[in-house]
Specification:
Largest sheet: none
Number of helices: 2
Mean pLDDT: 93
Structural class: mainly alpha
Number of strands: 0
Order of helices and strands: HH
Shape: elongated
Strand content: under 5%
Distance between the termini: 29 Å
């Protein structure tokens, strides 16, 4: 049971990292500043 919960937590962490990566990528492509990108990530 612990293993299943551990895998579920890891999956959630990976999904969050993926979302953050996508946000950073799109904002860089759009020419956003570091401050804007940082602010957007804190909202997640």
């Amino acid at each position: 049971m612990e293993t299943r919960e551990s895998f579920a937590q890891k999956e959630i962490q990976l999904q969050r990292m993926n979302i953050r990566g996508e946000v950073i990528h799109r904002m860089v492509l759009a020419g956003a500043s570091v401050d804007d990108t940082s602010e957007r990530l804190t909202l997640l």
